[in-house]
Design goal:
This protein is α/β, with parallel strands linked by helices and about 400 residues long. The protein folds into 2 domains: about 5-55 and about 125-155 and about 230-405, Zn peptidases (Aminopeptidase), CATH 3.40.630; about 65-115 and about 160-225. The protein has helices spanning about 5-20, 30-45, 60-85, 90-110, 155-160, 165-190, 200-210, 215-225, 235-250, 275-280, 285, 320-330, 350-355, 385-405, and strands at about 50-55, 125-135, 140-150, 260-265, 290-295, 305-310, 315, 340, 355-365. A hairpin with a 4-residue loop joins strand 6 (about 305-310) and strand 7. The chain starts with a helix and ends in a 6-residue tail after the last helix.
Length: about 400
């Protein structure tokens, strides 16, 4: 039924063609827009119901989100030093206020994709691309298969020290929460006319420790995210290659009976699911009862397939029922996989938060990050097309079962 070798070769051509003709596709860049046009032109070969939709966001907030906790910690520490020698509540309030602001940024922009600081940055244009395939009858269900066409900027620390990346990036986050507690205690003590943490030597110890961390904070702030966009062959041209092959299948097949299929490529996923947030909100009335599956970096040679049902270390829950159906299909097709959570997020996060059943298929190493993740090494030679092919097989079988009303969640 499938010509596996032909499909894998076509997938390879798609990824290589985009890499050679367009290259890296940073959020809101001209190359990201060119890739959207490329995708739309290919969609037109399979259906007339396709188009590009522009939206606006603030990509400048992305780097700031990482750096604000680090910068605020250093400024707060300097203010704390001044307070240590001149116990004036103004310096204490400054330090406390900076930490509170850091916590807000961490909890909103970083952890939950709430665009808290975005309005202070320049508004720029990005794009979503879609293609719709309608059934012969009135559709009983909509299935959305999605991905993203933007690529991230390189993470120099992740490239140089992948094993230590999580620890290094966690330092300012954990320290921000800890210092908020310290400053609350200090404010209480100050109101009781006790200027220090019970005795001045304890304050001095805190100050020395915080100051000793300055080299790490400065290095991390500079090198957490560069201005060099990566090729993103795995993250996430693999989704584009799969979507194109699904479009071919839908055009060549006998036709859908009960299910309408939307193939969507989102822009600006890398800076916080901006495209999928706009798209899912715009079409919420149509997609409220849809099944949404997003595909993200499924081709890495050092990765295994994961059915993603929980994201950002258990903060965001996706559809476990939908994930179970995908896992069942993968098992029946003898495709190695596991079901669980990922420490990052995918476009499914936006759909799920709008009450739409969504989960993702992602490639994830057993430990840590893929060696090419968010680095200039994310090139086509890092891909195993058998992994991409397996993801395609799962999605085709899922579409068939939904259309035959064998899956009802």
């Amino acid at each position: 039924m499938y010509d596996a070798n032909k499909i894998k070769e076509d997938m390879r051509f798609t990824i290589q063609d985009i890499c050679e003709k367009i290259g890296p596709r940073a959020p809101c860049s001209e190359q990201e827009a060119d890739c959207a046009t490329y995708i739309e032109n290919h969609f037109k070969s399979y259906t007339k119901n396709t188009g590009i939709e522009k939206f606006y966001c603030h990509p400048g907030s992305y780097r700031a989100t990482f750096r604000i906790p680090m910068i605020n910690l250093m400024i707060a520490t300097l203010s704390y030093w001044i307070y240590f020698y001149y116990p004036n509540i103004v310096f204490l309030i400054i330090s406390f206020g900076l930490m509170i602001f850091s916590i807000l940024v961490i909890q909103t922009n970083l952890m939950r994709n709430i665009e808290f600081i975005d309005p202070i940055f320049k508004k720029q244009e990005s794009t979503n691309v879609y293609a719709r395939f309608k059934p012969k009858k009135t559709p009983k269900r909509i299935v959305v298969i999605g991905g993203h066409h933007d690529s991230n900027w390189e993470f120099p620390i992740l490239k140089k020290w992948p094993k230590f990346y999580t620890g290094v990036m966690s330092i300012p986050i954990l320290l921000s929460f800890f210092m908020v507690g310290v400053y609350i205690l200090k404010l209480i003590l100050y109101s009781l006319s006790i200027p220090y943490l019970f005795f001045s030597q304890l304050d001095l110890v805190f100050l020395i420790i915080q100051t000793a961390l300055f080299p790490i904070l400065i290095y991390t702030a500079i090198n957490c995210v560069s201005r060099d966009p990566v090729m993103g062959a795995d993250d996430n041209l693999t989704s584009i290659a799969i979507i194109f092959e699904i479009a071919k299948f839908l055009k060549k097949g006998e036709g859908l009976k009960n299910t309408e299929i939307w193939l969507v490529s989102h822009g600006c996923e890398e800076i916080g699911d901006r495209g999928s947030k706009r798209f899912s909100k715009k079409y919420l009335s149509e997609l409220r009862d849809a099944y949404v599956i997003n595909v993200d970096m499924v081709g890495g040679k050092d990765s295994e397939l994961k059915v993603d049902v929980v994201e950002v270390r258990s903060i965001v829950e996706l559809s476990k029922e939908l994930g179970d159906e995908l896992s069942k299909i993968a098992t029946e097709l003898n495709i190695p996989h596991n079901v669980g959570n990922v420490m990052f997020y995918t476009d499914s996060m936006a759909y799920s938060r709008n009450g739409i059943k969504a989960c993702s298929l992602v490639g994830s190493p057993k430990k840590g990050f893929a060696t090419h993740y968010h680095t200039l090494n994310d090139t086509i030679d890092k891909l195993d097309f058998n992994n991409i092919w397996n993801c395609y097989r799962i999605l085709i079988e899922f579409i068939k079962r939904v259309d035959e009303e064998k899956i009802l969640i």
